[in-house]
């Protein structure tokens, strides 16, 4: 499988279908700005082969540094102080991670998409990413916590009665997760990617795969 940056216009129909499925899971209307691609977005696609003949997953995100008022441009920016984590230029927000229904039960596939997104973010100078889940999705919260995430708070989505949980993930911690390492070992080795072990008090633990 291969993860790479994609042009959302080229895969518009596939992304639209994935987005509709996610909105339906959330109980939100699949229309308007909730359905439209992000004008300032970055899109990564997961393909079954290097030929990119079949798109089976997408990570859709934006950079806080690209917003006119940074963190304050978001509905939660005034209530949760993200500046205590890092400046906007080092933070992204994942709008959605989608996998084709036939691949959702395979954690390795999901891990590969997450790791590919983390690698792309680090190359852009991004160190953390936020994401939102349904407040009731406790199993998903636990999964992201195992991948280096933590819960920042719970809020009500504007114009709805749906409660969501805002989380933040340290991208280096995500890449240090054993399951992520296993799923991306070949790719990391091929790229001679330098990645950290779980952070230690003395700063040790960084290693390079050859």
What is the approximate shape?
globular
Helix content: 25-40%
Series of secondary-structure elements, N-terminal to C-terminal:
EHEEEHEHEEHHEE
CATH topology of the domain at 59-198: Aminopeptidase
Unreliable stretches, pLDDT < 50, 5 or more residues?
190-210
| Helix-and-strand structural type | alpha+beta
For the largest sheet, list the strands in their spatial order.
Answer: 1-2-3-4-5-7-6
Beta strands, count:
9
According to CATH, what is the class of the domain at 59-198? Answer: Alpha Beta
CATH architecture of the domain at 59-198: 3-Layer(aba) Sandwich
CA radius of gyration is 17 Å
**Binned strand content:** 25-35%
What do you see in this structure?
The protein is of the alpha+beta class. The protein has a domain of 140 residues: Gcn5-related N-acetyltransferase (GNAT) (Aminopeptidase, 3-Layer(aba) Sandwich), CATH 3.40.630. Helices cover 29% and strands 28% of the residues. It has a 7-stranded mixed sheet with strand order 1-2-3-4-5-7-6, sandwiched between helices. A hairpin with a 7-residue loop joins strand 2 and strand 3. Helix 2 packs across helix 5. The C terminus is likely disordered.
């Amino acid at each position: 499988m291969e993860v790479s940056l994609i042009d959302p216009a080229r895969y518009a129909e596939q992304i639209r279908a994935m987005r509709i499925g996610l909105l339906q899971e959330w109980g939100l209307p699949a229309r308007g700005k909730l359905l439209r691609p992000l004008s300032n977005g970055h899109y990564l696609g997961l393909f079954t082969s290097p030929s990119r003949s079949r798109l089976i997953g997408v990570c859709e995100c934006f950079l806080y540094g690209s917003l006119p008022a940074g963190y304050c441009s978001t509905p939660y920016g005034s209530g949760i102080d993200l500046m205590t984590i890092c400046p906007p230029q080092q933070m992204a927000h994942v709008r959605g991670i989608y996998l084709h229904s036939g691949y959702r039960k395979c954690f390795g596939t999901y891990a590969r998409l997450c790791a590919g997104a983390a690698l792309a973010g680090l190359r852009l100078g991004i160190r953390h990413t936020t994401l939102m889940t349904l407040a009731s999705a406790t199993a998903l919260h636990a999964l992201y916590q195992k991948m280096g995430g933590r819960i920042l708070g719970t809020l009500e989505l504007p114009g709805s009665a749906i409660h969501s949980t805002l989380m933040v993930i340290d991208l280096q911690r995500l890449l240090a997760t054993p399951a992520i390492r296993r799923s991306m070992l070949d790719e990391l080795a091929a790229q001679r990617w330098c990645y950290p072990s779980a952070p230690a008090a003395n700063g040790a633990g960084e290693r390079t795969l050859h």
